[in-house]
Amino acid sequence: MVSEGKFALLLLLPTIVLLAGLLLYPFIYSIYLCFVNLNLTKPWLGTQFVGLANFTTTLMDPEFWSSLKITALFSGFSVAGSLAIGLIAALVLNQKLMFRGLFRSLLLIPWAIPLVIVGMIWKLILHPNYGVLNALLMQTGIIHKNIAWLTEPGWSFFMLILSELWRSFPFVALLYLAALQTIPKDLYEAAKVDGAGTLHNFRHITLPFLQPATLVLLVLRTIDAFRAFDLIFALTKGGPANKTEIVGLYLYKQGFMFTKFGESAAGSYLVTLLILLLVFVYVKLFKLKDIQ
């Protein structure tokens, strides 16, 4: 007679094996790649153990640090901008408006569209000859000649930020909107009786209650920004002159274009450690704010 626990484990076994194959094996293999030299262009050399050489080579590569700097700027602007725009959108949609449900549904459209499709949409909008943006600015007299938004170094990075904000702020607004629903209405009514204004309520009631949601959003958006790839690959592929090559594109090129899989894997784990450090800083800052 088989016990219920063993029978349940037997039923779960196919799922466990599948998850191990899809998650555990790639994870272990990626760690293995960090310490070996896997050269597919010269298979007769075999796989050589190189220790920490992949990490040191990556850290000594100026292109890695350049891509990391671009990623930090991209993450900083996109995370801060999406949180600010998302909070404003959530505050507006939290009010009693006509067709509020419709607006909330429409808000999710940019976030629900696949990233590659978002990239194609923005590539059409920013096309130098028949793009909507150039046509609109020409009609309004703001510009007098077409601008190559994605091939000029001064504009390409800005347009990446703009397209990323358009894609990401609905997710932020959705989480902030859910957090706003949990704030007790009695607090606002008591503050109104005491003569508090809108700014006072926002600073002393709304923002403190939104701190947990803000911490979660900071973590999620930072991770999302550091692993950004699809949108930028679809728009600029890191150009012009590597001015928009974030670390995800750098690691992609190292692994799948130059077949430096060990260095690509090592760089990935270096970025992971950086993200973990940022998350630790976020948590510490919010704890200090709570103490104050």
Series of secondary-structure elements, N-terminal to C-terminal: HEEHHHHHHHHHHHH
- The average pLDDT is 86
Mind describing the biggest β-sheet?
2 strands, antiparallel
Question: What is the share of helical residues?
Answer: over 70%
Total number of domains? 1
Number of helices: 13
Q: N-to-C terminal Cα separation, in Å?
A: 61 Å
Describe this structure as you would to a colleague:
It contains 13 helices and two strands. A two-stranded antiparallel sheet has the order 1-2. It is globular, with a radius of gyration of 24 Å. Helix 3 (about 60-95) runs antiparallel to helix 10 (about 200-225), helix 3 crosses helix 12 and helix 10 (about 200-225) packs antiparallel against helix 13 (about 260-290). The model has no long low-confidence stretch (mean pLDDT about 85). With about 290 residues, the protein is mostly helical. The chain has a single domain, classed as MetI-like (MetI-like fold, Orthogonal Bundle), CATH 1.10.3720.
What are the main properties of this structure?
single chain; 292 residues; mainly alpha; 73% helix
Task: Give a brief outline of the structure.
This protein is an all-alpha fold and 292 residues long.
